């Protein structure tokens, strides 16, 4: 017996199935402006409430016993659409743009858990790059997502949304096919990109909500560090201990000057933990000690690599992105202005 499931990347035994578990508190750990977080939460909650199966308003979870059923939409339960063409423009498209590692993909993951919905994450390897294949694949995935009540995440969407050129017919067909598929999808789609400056003009008017992810402030970076500290202490409370000096070090000018994003902080802390385990220094209870020196080792490596890249490109990655017209990392979303803080 075959079971259709978009989450399958390999063959599994059906005896291993269990009801999905969602961490609804995950959204609170997201490091993002509180006003923006509230807006995303309200929009998705309202959209899901309006499009939910009337028989399942009390429980929006997708049951394994009912995956074969499509979500039935009644006319009065549909989200209102301003488009006069029936079946068009009934979805919610949210663009998340900014530099890498600032929480764009994590936002979609948090929303999926918060709303207790499956997350269908797609990349160009799932959709393809051939124009005819792209439209066919998207229709397939969007139909599957609608039947499951899933939230769709298209990672690095710029692959499909780059500006068209008169002489590049293949690119033009690719963009047109993506536009058509997106416009007729009735669910929630998150698009992430760190190359928003390359987008085709036609996409801008089809995006309902656009959210800019700027560079972390010093306080936000400390919050990200604290989140990873808390996770380790929760997961390895009996076998690992973070020394107070280690926690103090994350506020040091040396570390803050690196302007690490969330992914870089995660990687650095993971390396620090591995170094601590390899050295094996323990306290009186036998717990591995994570010291300031373990994080500092990753800081020194990062400094050296960043310096190398600056020598290659003649300026840092933020400046490179601006020069290439990919994005403006110096933009201040709160004041609506750009600073001249690029490092040469």
Automatic annotation (TrEMBL):
GO molecular function: ATP binding; ATP hydrolysis activity
AAA+ ATPase domain sequence ranges: 90-215
InterPro entries named among the record's database cross-references: AAA+_ATPase, AAA_lid_fung, ATPase_AAA_core, P-loop_NTPase
Database matches in SUPFAM superfamilies: P-loop containing nucleoside triphosphate hydrolases
Protein name as annotated: AAA+ ATPase domain-containing protein
Species annotation: Diaporthe helianthi
Source taxonomy: Eukaryota, Fungi, Dikarya, Ascomycota, Pezizomycotina
């Amino acid at each position: 017996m075959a079971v259709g499931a978009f989450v399958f990347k390999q063959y599994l035994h059906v005896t291993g199935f269990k009801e999905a578990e969602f961490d609804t508190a995950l959204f609170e750990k997201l490091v993002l402006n509180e006003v923006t977080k509230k807006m995303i939460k309200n929009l998705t909650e309202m959209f899901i409430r309006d499009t939910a199966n009337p028989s399942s308003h009390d429980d929006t979870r997708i049951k394994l016993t009912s995956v074969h059923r499509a979500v039935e939409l009644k006319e009065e339960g549909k989200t209102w659409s301003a488009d006069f063409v029936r079946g068009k423009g009934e979805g919610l498209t949210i663009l998340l743009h900014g530099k890498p590692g600032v929480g764009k993909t994590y936002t979609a993951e948090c929303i999926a858990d918060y709303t207790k919905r499956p997350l269908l994450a797609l990349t160009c390897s799932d959709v393809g790059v051939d124009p005819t294949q792209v439209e066919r694949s998207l229709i397939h995935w969007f139909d599957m997502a609608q039947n499951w009540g899933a939230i769709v995440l298209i990672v690095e969407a710029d692959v499909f949304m780059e500006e068209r050129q008169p002489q590049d017919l293949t690119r033009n067909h690719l963009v047109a096919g993506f536009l058509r598929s997106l416009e007729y999808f009735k669910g929630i789609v998150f698009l992430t990109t760190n190359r928003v400056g390359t987008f085709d003009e036609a996409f801008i008017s089809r995006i309902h909500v656009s959210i800019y992810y700027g560079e972390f402030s010093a306080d936000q970076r400390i919050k990200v560090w604290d989140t990873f500290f808390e996770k380790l202490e929760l997961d390895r409370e009996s076998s690992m201990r973070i020394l107070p000096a280690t926690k103090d070090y994350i506020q040091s000018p040396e570390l803050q000057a690196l302007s690490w994003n969330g992914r870089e902080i995660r990687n650095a802390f993971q390396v620090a933990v591995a170094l601590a385990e390899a050295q094996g220094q323990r306290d009186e209870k036998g717990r591995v000690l994570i010291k300031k020196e373990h994080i500092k080792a990753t800081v020194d490596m990062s400094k050296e690599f960043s310096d190398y890249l600056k020598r290659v490109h003649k300026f840092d990655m933020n400046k490179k992105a601006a020069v290439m017209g990919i994005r403006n990392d110096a933009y201040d979303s709160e004041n609506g202005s750009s600073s001249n803080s690029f490092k040469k």
